[in-house]
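Input record (one chain):
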Amino acid sequence: MNRLKERLIRLNISFKKELIRYIIIVLALAIGFTVAALLSKMWFLFAIMGVTLLGFTFFYVSRYKGIEDKRRQNDLLEFVNLFAFFRIYLKNGFNVYVALKEMINFANASLREMLQKLVDEIDEDKSVEPFIRFAKEFNNLLVEEMMVSVYQIIDDGSDSNHLVQFELIYDKFSETLQKERLNAKDKGLANLTVSALIGSAYLITLVTMGIISILGEMMHGL
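The corresponding structure, as predicted from the sequence alone:
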């Protein structure tokens, strides 16, 4: 439970609201199945209720992974867009520190906080460590390579080979990210298809079991 709570905090999702929403939906499903079973005397509905509640719990919790992946993708996309400005600043004679500070003005909320933290740490630590810590927030090796090359530009200047290296890594990263977005879109469509098939199979199972139960009662009545 604590791990889930920490996960929701990282996603800026209220644990209390999520718990209340989950309890309300579970209670509604349980009451609905119970009333249906008692009125129809189709006792197999209790078994289906158990399966339904387990399935709902699994999908309710697993959707956080999708939210995390989407936010990670959005942050990476924002990173790419921001560092396009960074490259322009360098080519116009700005140094790395000033370019990073200027980028804060264009960043979204999450990256603005990360960039501000990076700039503040650079004030205290002139080593590569602040750049490494910043890159690790994205959990992407290409971002780490890019930030190391950014650090190397500080010593050698914007006319150095490290700027060329940065641009090569940036272009590669941008291309890779675009491919990942297309793959994620295809995967999302495939998941929707699978979910629709599962839902259809579930409804067919319910209808079939209902028909079998009705036929059984009719046969006993004869």
